[in-house]
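Obj.: predict assembly geometry.
Materials: sequence records (below).
Method: joint structure prediction, all chains together.
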Amino acid sequence: MSDEYDNNKSYQAQSSEVLDGSAGSINPDMDYVRPAEIPEQDLYHAHSFIEKWIFCQDAKVIGVQYFLTAVFTGIVGLILSWLMRLQLGFPELAGFMTAEHYYQFVTMHGMIMVVYFLTALFLGGFGNYLIPLMVGARDMVFPYVNMLSFWMFFVAVAVLMASFFVPGGPTGAGWTLYPPQTILEGTPGSGTGILLMLISLSLFVIGFTMGGLNYMITILQARTRGMTLMRMPLTVWGIFTATVLAMLAFPALLVSAIMMTLDKVLQTSFFMPTILKAGEVLEYGGGSPILFQHLFWFFGHPEVYIVALPAFGIVSDLISVHARKNIFGYRMMVWAIVGIGGLSFFVWAHHMYVSGMNPWFGFFFATTTLIIAVPTAMKVYNWILTLWRGNIRINTVMLWCLGFIVTFVNGGITGIFLGNVSVDVPLSDTYFVVAHFHMVMGIAPLMVIMGAVYHWFPLVAGKMLSETLGKWHFWITFLGAYSIYFPMHYLGFIGVPRRYFEMYDSPYMTSTVGMNEFISVAAFIVGAAQFILVFNIIKTLKTGKKAEQNPWKANSLEWYTSTVPPEHGNFGERLPVVHRWPYDFSVPGAKDDFIPQTTAPSEVANTEVEKT
Amino acid sequence: MHAGIIFLLVIVGSVLFHIFTPWYWTDIASNWGGMDSTITLTFWVGGGVFVAVCLFMVYCVFRYSHKEDRRAEYKPEDKKLEKILTWATTLGVCALLAPGLIIWNQYVNVPKNAIEVDVMAWQWGWQYRLPGADGKLGTTQVRNIADNNPFGINPDDPFGKDDVMIESDVINLENNRPVKILLRSVDVLHNWYVPQFRSKMDAVPGTVTFYWFEPNKVGEYEVLCAEYCGVGHYAMRGGVEVQDKADYEVWLSEQETFEQLSARYEKLNVDGNKLAKK
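Observations (raw structure tokens):
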């Protein structure tokens, strides 16, 4: 990425630009765009290497920093999953691994992948990079806070990784951190490990709040002229709604982390009832372990959608661009995102059907959970209806999107099993659950991330990734991941419980040895295949083909920057003015099969545009 | 083209795997067949949707793959189609939800004639208590637990005296008689789960939780802990032996009551009040 911005140039808005909204257009009535209400923001430009690449205030650099840090945690999570699969598939080769190790790996893998990898990658990575570009802003509205957000995240990751090296190791309480076992002996890392985890999560929430405020306010307040809410790319809608969810959900995680820290350090009893351990009654009493579960899942379920909604948004844009067709039912897509976001706060206890909460809650939460299936299904229909009668480029990006549809529908359907309270009873706490959530919020969002990487790499780096390597990467990942998680559901039907270090010789479980070996081998291959991408990126940066501007012929603003890759300030001297939604593909009467958002109606007067 | 074929093979493979899988649920041994049927129903409806959506996708990949001289259709919205799809989905969801809720209603309403079983869990093991002749379990408290009172029964509670104590990780149950499992834990979360009975619930320290089932197949079953409870979780097993009434009653008569246990400790003249080392 280059940032060769001339520091002497000022982006202060000219007064004429503020007042005269229709400057330069041929037909003022047809092309009218509301004048700007506020002058442009003044950017702080970097003066040194450190300001430019380390303590940087440019959202694009911050996005890349978030991305790389998240990918680092993801690789740690991946290695942990390999170790787990080694134990489950080939325990005779994993002699070095004790049950303590295994549970620590399970816990750290889960927490890393959900929070530090997926959340940070979608919102911190894609959010930072894409929001200002897509809404036509020069940067986030609070660039300095944005920089602090990343560094807070960085410290959170450092604290988390430090827990691998403290006495007793990281916490092995399961990523759900259910008390009382989380802070009691008998669970690995119940001393320093859990404290570091709670501190790291608190730091993450603080850092994320700084970034989240930026994303929300930038989207609400800093859109360019003509960029109405209903002209925003769905990527922005997805990230925006996810950020609102995060702002409301993360506080629940923060308070539960603080309360648990107090239980651990000061022997308060928020979550701790009277406990008999090793023949002694501990100094706790009267607390409620289920209270923690409510708080955790009040965060934890929206968290699923914090990951899913940006993926929904991004994949909608990728499908539309590469099918050369408008996204089908844009308004429905927007309302589905908002509706799913809203509903996601009323379904949390479907994680707790067999937790011992009052069983009557089951009726309510099963109903809300299955209601959420309706807007979700609508999104799926609209994705495939976008393909229908499209002009589909079967390139690497589209393959990832198709892989997303298959895995997401698969995982969505198994969600209906688990959400439907009495069906959940035999399946909860089994491998069915593991398979379900990996398919729906592991693999499916990962497909989108990969698609997005291949799609936007030419913008970020100015070079095209190799398609051949990309296709190999896709097919190994998709087929491998599918053959890991599809059969795994059937382990759950048998009744194999999750979080078992060893299966012993339960009669009906011995039949699963072969499958476990198969799954483990697939997991090793899929994990290794991710390094194809790393290789592809390194090779492309060194010798890759230079990307032309807007190589995919997309409409949204990020492809219409003054330079590729975009410089600090994104759009050169003048901000773009938006005249239409970003999905005018294959409009009848138009010369090309795409009409950029910045094209004024008078320039394409002969087209039959339906929506602007 | 290749892409479409591979996706098609994945879908066909998934269906074939489901039909021919050697890995499927264990033979049911309780009254919760309704759960199995709801799963089967969900498989038909959900699996149908999965196959339909994916096949449609594959069709689009074959039929509409990129050609330079062709243009995609331009049709931003189709209100009618969207309406039909919304209502059809809503209907399908209701059809799945209804049986789910009906069975849940059965699950949370315990039959009157159910025998209560106190399942007490700790890191890492199980023990069981049955009501005596009075048909009622005595109340308990964690602080009462001691060598001579392994279940922490309140000594003043008259219902507790004749409680039958089974200090073993295996419990016997009578065939075709509903059982109300009352779950307790003295330390962390646990979950008393027998896959063949299909049912489960967490044991939560500080409270008593419950669920019920009716075993309907004589035999021995393995109990698994289904809620992560620390490093010994995977090894926390127990057992159930379902017996016919006659066999069960013989077994029951051989078990010790709380009163008998207390008397035994008094006779031994040891200090049974010290807390049990678990």
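Conclusions so far: Chain A touches chain B through 115 residues (CB under 8 Å).
To do: check interface contacts against the pulldown list.
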